């Protein structure tokens, strides 16, 4: 496991100690990839085509929407939820950052 993945995994594990916080942590990635999947064109390279295509299937945005509902039902403290969501997005962006 690389350092970026290790950092993300450790953070997710810590975030999951609280149910609402853990849902918010997962939502950041689901929402991000769902949004990107709806906006990106399918690449011609078959491996990337299948990968991006997964995020364009109707079930993926539905899953992100369901997680949004679950976060609302869990009712985490708003400031903490925002910080968790933004930290999750920062981890997601780190996957794409070239060292």
Provide keyphrases for this structure.
81% helix; 99 residues; mainly alpha; single chain; 5 helices
Description:
It is a single chain. This protein has one domain. The protein contains five helices and no strands. By secondary structure, it is mainly α. 81% of the residues lie in helices and 0% in strands. α2 packs across α5.
Instruction: Please report which band the strand proportion falls in: under 5%, 5-15%, 15-25%, 25-35%, 35-45% or over 45%.
Output: under 5%
Largest sheet features: none
Terminus-to-terminus distance: 16 Å
Number of domains: 1
Question: Which structural class should the secondary elements be placed in?
Answer: mainly alpha
Averaged pLDDT, please?
92
Radius of gyration: 14 Å
Helix content: over 70%
Quick summary of this structure?
The chain has 99 residues and is mainly α. It contains 5 helices and no strands.
Q: Which helices and strands, and how do they pair?
A:
Elements: H1 3-15, H2 19-39, H3 46-56, H4 59-74, H5 78-96
Helix pairs in contact: 1-2, 1-5, 2-3, 2-4, 2-5
């Amino acid at each position: 496991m690389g350092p970026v993945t290790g950092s993300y995994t450790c953070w997710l594990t810590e975030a999951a100690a609280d149910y609402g916080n853990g849902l918010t942590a997962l939502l950041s990635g689901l929402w991000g990839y769902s949004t990107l999947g709806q906006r990106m064109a399918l690449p011609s390279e078959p491996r990337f085509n299948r990968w991006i295509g997964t995020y364009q299937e109707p079930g993926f945005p539905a899953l992100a929407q369901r997680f949004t509902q679950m976060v609302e039902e869990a009712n985490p403290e708003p400031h903490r939820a925002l910080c968790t969501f933004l930290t999750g997005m920062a981890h997601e962006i780190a996957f794409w950052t070239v060292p």
